[in-house]
């Protein structure tokens, strides 16, 4: 089951679908056995490393952008980094209030199903926008804040972090590829912050804490995540978000009917 969860995490984290909704279905199949929150956090760490590896060029240019300040230069990637910081603020604030809901997704299958349907429909509607030529390297800070607010709403069980960011970016006029790119980059500080908070709570001297299992899960999540990122970025050059929106709606209906 833990291997399956690592695979599900790697897939659902980067598709505009809800990983929490899939967790509910998998856990139900295995007799309502839910993994510990710490294990799920480790899976997210694997996903975060995959983002950093795939987008290493962006991250490197962001670093160079910050170093360029000492020479009086303000690069596009420095501007992008500020957009990421601004976009992270809402999720940091809202996360403090919704932490208990996020921590216990198994208690809210109805809410998860409902949110999956609602946000799936919103993703489709946002994707109908024809004009999509805004470059993320020139993103306004207002746009960054609005996309960050969408990411904060994604803390609701079943909403999908990446899907909400893509939805907001598409609605604001960014291309599917750029919307996805920014959603993934915005995920780095969000995942990192949540992971640090939870990992510091772990008693590593506890004999029930299986470090090898954590490492295994993180590695599987990383490998699957990287593959999904590569495929997602290629697919969105040719297809719309419609298949993902329909899939989310179907999953939401299944949760409402059978869970």
TrEMBL record:
Top EC group: hydrolase
This protein's record includes keyword Cell wall biogenesis/degradation: yes
Localization per record: Cell membrane
UniProt cross-references to Pfam families, sorted A to Z: BacA
Keyword list, A-Z: Antibiotic resistance, Cell membrane, Cell shape, Cell wall biogenesis/degradation, Hydrolase, Membrane, Peptidoglycan synthesis, Transmembrane, Transmembrane helix
GO CC annotation: plasma membrane
Catalytic activity entry: di-trans,octa-cis-undecaprenyl diphosphate + H2O = di-trans,octa-cis-undecaprenyl phosphate + phosphate + H(+)
Membrane spanning stretches: 37-56, 77-102, 108-128, 140-160, 180-201, 213-233, 239-258
Lineage: superkingdom: Bacteria
GO MF terms, alphabetically ordered: undecaprenyl-diphosphatase activity
Record flagged with keyword Cytoplasm: no
EC numbers for this chain: 3.6.1.27
Record GO biological process: cell wall organization; peptidoglycan biosynthetic process; regulation of cell shape; response to antibiotic
Membrane topology summary: Multi-pass membrane protein
Other known facts: Bacitracin is thought to be involved in the inhibition of peptidoglycan synthesis by sequestering undecaprenyl diphosphate, thereby reducing the pool of lipid carrier available.
Family: Belongs to the UppP family.
Protein task: Catalyzes the dephosphorylation of undecaprenyl diphosphate (UPP). Confers resistance to bacitracin.
Protein name per the record: Undecaprenyl-diphosphatase
Natural source organism: Candidatus Bodocaedibacter vickermanii
Source species taxonomy: Bacteria, Pseudomonadati, Pseudomonadota, Alphaproteobacteria, Holosporales
Gene responsible for this protein: uppP
